[in-house]
Amino acid sequence: MNNILFSVSILCLAILLLIFLLKKLHQPYLVAYILAGIVLGPYVSGIFHSAENISTLGEMGIIFLMFFLGLEIEVPDNKSILWKACIAQLIKTALSLLCAFFITKWFGWHTGNFILLAVILTFNSTAVVSEFLRRNGELSSDIGKTVLNILLLQDIMLAPVFTCFQWMEKGNTSFAHLLPAIAGCVLIFFLLRAVRNRNLFQLTFLKEIKKDHELQVFAGGFVCLGFALLAASMGLTGAIGSFIAGIYLSRTDVFNWLESALRPFKIFFVALFFVSIGLMLDIHYIKAHYSFIIAVTVLVMIINSLLSAIVFKWLRFTWKDSFQAGALLAQTGEFGLLACTVAFQLNIIDIDFFKTALSVMGLSLLLSSIWITLLRKVTGIIPSTIAGN
């Protein structure tokens, strides 16, 4: 018990000190969380010997994060914004697959490496992007709505990725495994349509919960985690279920209290998720291959930025807005990390590719805020005659 108290106390102290330092450098909190994981992990101080337990708890942080994002996001009444997100993600996925194919052919990699590389180029970080948009008041902008809808589609795409991994590992996965995921996607479509048309069932009998804060916490936790469990049982990610729950409940009058009741849980568990990323990073491996890892990280962020900018320009955004959207979607995502871990556990990729991919994704998350700020400053000095075209 004393060992647990010591470890958690040191973790809280490390996060606190890093947050104070990074706030002066105008860096987001998630950087402090990742750095705390690196410092306290098995490859530096050794206070935490494994990321497994913290990673499991941290996954709940992503569920709460998506739930809060659902509470805050505005589902557009205009169908064109939703279609823009669908078209954008389809084009980006196709371009990512094409890039991954040529890179795989160049290095002579096998199919598992090809699929994971495509995943790295396809998935972005909802946590990073949503926090940046929220901090800058851009959640309701056209770019903000389109980007967040793209991220939602990426989360839905995680289900077929995992199914593909199962096919590669077992070789006998039937089409029936896809049916629950397909049913879940159809259900999500109708829920979003009901939200957009305001055809919602109001749970008026729960109005009494407003007066009882203890009931608020447990009722809110049940709604968030219950929807996540339902989505996970359909073959989707739990984060998708909690996101849909947040969207639905934000349109009802009964659950206006929910955000304040669950916010402390969201902060705590999201912090644990990013701490677990830091714990998994093998500092000795990164040190031995630092030039290659840095080069690959920068290359991945450049490719992601360019692909996303091209897609947004094709959607008739200005070049300035397109490059700013590309900056937002430059980093790899938390679900890409999850896919990488699953692929390694199923022996689809080897240990070297796993450590390299993990290092690249972790480093891209650390650099994401700097990358976004830098590209936004660069696009800000583009002449208006060019940026507006």
TrEMBL record:
Residues 14-375 form the Cation/H+ exchanger transmembrane domain. It comes from Filimonas lacunae. Belongs to the monovalent cation:proton antiporter 2 (CPA2) transporter (TC 2.A.37) family. Its main location: membrane. The chain crosses the membrane at residues 6-22, 29-48, 54-73, 85-108, 114-134, 146-168, 174-195, 215-245, 265-283, 290-311, 323-344, 356-374. One of its GO terms (cellular component) is membrane. GO terms for biological process: proton transmembrane transport. This is Transporter, CPA2 family.
